[in-house]
Task: structure prediction
Amino acid sequence: VEFTFTIEDTGIGMTEDFLAHIFEPFTQENTNVAAKFTGTGLGMTITRQLVEKMNGSIHVKSELNKGTAFTVILPFTIDHNRTYANPQKEHSIKNLKGMRVLLAEDNEINIEIAHCILKQEKIEVITAKNGEQALNCFIQSKPYSIDVILMDVMMPVMNGLEATRQIRRLARPDAKTVPILAMTANAFSEDAVKTKQAGMNEHLTKPIDRTLLLQRLSHYYTK
Result:
C-alpha cells in the first residue's frame, strides 16, 4: 500500500530556478531569509535522504509569494498475518479516584498535560517543580499518604535521580517502598539503567502515553 502525505502552506514560496536546487545541501534561496528564520539549508537534503531510505519519493511545487506544497509518497507492506492484543484485558485500568500522586516536573506544559490526565481520573496531585521540592514534599507528608511519585529526571536545583536516591535513604517506613516512576524524554537503555540504579521502579518516556501511564498507576495502586 502507498500512503501520500501533502504538506502545503501559503507562505513566501520559491522561484522555479531555485526549485531545481532545493534538495542540494547548504542551499537557501536568499541570505535575507536565512538571516530572518535561521537554518543551514540542510533540512530538505536530510528529508529527502530519510524518504529515500524508506523507499519513498518527495516532490515539491511552489509559486513565489503564493506558497509551497510538498508531497511525500511512502510504500508499506501489509501484514496479512497480524494479530491483535487486547491491552485493556492484559493491563486493566482501575478506578483511581482518591489516589495521591506526587508529580515532580519543571516544564509547565508537561505539568498541565499530566494534571489534565490525572485530574480526569479524580487523582489528587501534589506538584513539585524540582527534585529538592519533591524530596521536601515527601518528607513533610504522612507515611504511606503518597501512593506514587512521578519523577522527571532532568530538573533544576536537584535532578530526579538524586531526589530518588535521597528519598530511598530516608528513615521512614514507606521510603523504600513508595513506587517512583521516571518520566523522561531519554529513551535509551542506558538511561533506564540509571533510573533503576537510583531506585526508581519504572522508566516511562515522554511524551506521556495516557493509557500506559494509567495502566502503570493502576498496577501500583493497592487501595
